[in-house]
């Protein structure tokens, strides 16, 4: 199985109506822990990198980590560039070896977004890679990209035209979801997912997954959300696990970094395994 394509992973999930965890990592420890959790759960997983992570670590180092950690892995794994409005970064990552990208031109007029997305899809195909597209910004700022102002939702006709003319492999509509921590329960537009999938069967990406209820996840996955993005939950787990360990270390005056790393790794492995079980992808490898 090893490294797989985005299309092969999400097409099966879409057909069988389960969700594949698409988890944003922030460093080598989180990448290894997410992969280990997927192996434990016997689940496919999409490892996501933000533009901020690519720039802070460097694409060469990140991809070297990926190659090393996925060598011999026996569950389907995908390396995905998340929410990237910068064409140069997309090209850099495709050339380096990422096999999936989200070209986020949602701040552009739809016609220009569509024109450039067609170009990105053509470029990605030359590398055997796949593309996620969107025409509306998902509310919330994630790693410096996005806005807290909700964007206008496009009509079903415009959404379908975008999907058909660009040839994207996954589509990410705005349905009342948001990046970051929800301050109140979101009001989700389940019908929008259903309408798109009914008119044009395509795997849907659910952004802003951290904080949704089990019932909301279950309904959206049943409707066709085959890629379920998780970023904030990993960041919270990483930071809170580290903080709890450091507070205890301070109280005991025992300072052992490998033990800290082991605790954080254990918590992220458990998070990944739990997400796979919740989304129905556990045992699908």
Task: Tell me what you see in this structure.
This is Class II fructose-bisphosphate aldolase. It comes from Cryobacterium glucosi. Its cofactor is Zn(2+). InterPro entries: Aldolase_TIM, Class_II_FBP_aldolase, FBA_II. With 285 residues, the chain is α/β, with parallel strands linked by helices. The protein contains eleven helices and ten strands. The strands form two sheets. It has an eight-stranded parallel sheet with strand order 8-5-4-3-2-1-10-9, sandwiched between helices. Strands 6-7 form a two-stranded antiparallel sheet. Helix 2 links the parallel strand 1 and strand 2 (45-49). Helix 2 packs parallel to helix 4 and helix 2 (28-41) packs across helix 11 (257-279). The longest helix is centred in the C-terminal third of the chain and has 23 residues, at 257-279. It is globular. The termini are close together. The relative contact order is 0.18.
Largest sheet: 8 strands, parallel
Instruction: Work out the helicity level.
Output: 40-55%
Total number of β-strand segments? 10
Low-confidence stretches: none
Strand-residue fraction?
Answer: 15-25%
Kindly report the spatial arrangement of strands forming the biggest sheet.
Answer: 8-5-4-3-2-1-10-9
* Oligomeric state: single chain
Shape: globular
Order of helices and strands: HEHEHHEHEHEEEHEHEHEHH
Distance between the termini: 8 Å
What structural class do you assign from the helix and strand content? alpha/beta
Helices, by number, come to 11
CA radius of gyration: 18 Å
Mean pLDDT: 92
């Amino acid at each position: 199985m090893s490294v797989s394509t985005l299309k092969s992973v999400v097409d099966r999930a879409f057909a069988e109506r389960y969700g594949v965890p698409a988890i944003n990592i922030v460093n080598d420890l989180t990448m290894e822990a997410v992969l280990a959790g997927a192996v434990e759960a016997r689940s496919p997983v999409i490892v996501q990198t933000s533009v901020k992570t690519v720039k802070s670590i460097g694409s060469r180092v990140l991809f070297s980590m990926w190659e090393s950690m996925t060598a011999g892995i026996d569950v389907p794994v995908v390396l995905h560039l998340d929410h990237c409005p910068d064409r140069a970064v997309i090209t850099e990552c495709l050339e380096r070896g990422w096999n999936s990208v989200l070209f986020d031109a949602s701040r552009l007029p739809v016609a220009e977004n569509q024109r450039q997305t067609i170009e990105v899809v053509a470029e990605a195909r030359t590398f055997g890679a796949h593309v996620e597209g969107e025409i509306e910004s998902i509310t919330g700022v994630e790693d410096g990209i996005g806005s807290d102002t909700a964007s206008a939702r496009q009509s079903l006709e415009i959404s379908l035209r975008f999907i058909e003319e660009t040839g994207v492999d996954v589509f990410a509509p705005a349905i009342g979801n948001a990046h970051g921590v929800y301050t109140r329960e979101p009001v989700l537009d389940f019908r929008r997912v259903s309408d798109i999938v009914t008119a044009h069967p395509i795997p849907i990406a659910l952004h802003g997954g951290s904080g949704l209820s089990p019932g909301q996840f279950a309904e959206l996955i049943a409707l066709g959300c085959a890629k379920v993005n998780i970023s904030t939950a990993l960041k919270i787990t990483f930071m809170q696990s580290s903080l709890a360990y450091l507070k205890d270390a301070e109280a005991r005056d025992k300072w052992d970094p490998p033990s800290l790393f082991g605790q954080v790794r254990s918590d992220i492995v458990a998070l990944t395994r739990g997400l796979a079980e919740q989304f129905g992808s556990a045992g699908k490898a």
